[in-house]
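Why do we care about 3D structure at all? Because function follows from shape, and shape follows, mostly, from sequence. That is the central idea of this module. The next example makes it concrete: a single protein chain, its amino acid sequence, and then its structure expressed as tokens.
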Amino acid sequence: MTAPALSLCQVTGAEDGVTTDLVNRILRYIGLPLGLAILVWLVLASDPAALFGVFPRIGWGFLAILAVRAATVVVDCGAWACLLPPRGRPSFALMLPLRWIAESINTTLPAAQIGGEVVRARLLQRRLDSPARGAASVAVDFSLSLLAQILFTLLGFVLLAQLSAAGWWPAAVAAISVPLFAVFSWEMLVRRRLLAALEAWSARIGQRRLAGILQRLGAALALLAESRAALAWSLSLHLTSWLGHAAEVWLTLWLMGAPTGPGEALILESLSLAARSAAFLIPSGWGAQEASLVALASVTGLSAETALALGLVKRAREFAVGLPGLAAWAVAEHRRAPRRAA
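And the structure:
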């Protein structure tokens, strides 16, 4: 008995998927050395002894920096948890390590900046009686977090326009992106038109398993979208978390002996994060974050060396939070938790 022949769409789709994955992997392998080269050049162009001398100056204050970041992770986890219906929702104590693991993967591993979201969705699915609901909650949470970051970046551009002669066009571009992204998210996650089109296309090319997965994901998204209050609360928590990131920058600079105002700290954090997100092909934004901080130094009243030292402290904090998070991920992968009973 002969095996059923594959359709041309299936073969072409598989080849396109392999090609896209290969191209993305090659670009990331190129991006990482490029980003590291930029960072090394910035360090060598400055005074390395002065740059690394900020760490003894911060001393035990580094624990306070870690505490502020831990608080933002807790707030982000709250924004994620409120999207799941109370009935059948895992405990906050169970979801918090998953959120920590996701951030650790995104900030420390040389992979795409959404790799952590995929991992936390998979880990949560093991603990739910409806796995699709776990994936849907991560998709909605990620979109709301990105929307909050766009608002955070918009605020940074507005403050930048007031402090410098950069003009209002960056703020205008950010302002235009807010409704565009909001409409796209609404169509994708609430009205689910794009998801329905993908489901129909999958069924048409014979990918019935994928079509079934997309159908269950759409049903889970429909349940999450019913609570508009939960969506609004989650968005407000994510925005609070981004403001907490700016507070971390303010605290770091104060501990470094280069105090600045809250507005300047917000500019540094919001626009360096925007540069890091724009340079998504460079894993963890190596070099892009530090270059943007140096570029913003004069506007915020800092020297270039102080701004670069701030970038190095932020990297040290990422590893201090991320490396234990990766260890927690290894433990979670080997601990097969049973799904919750219905």
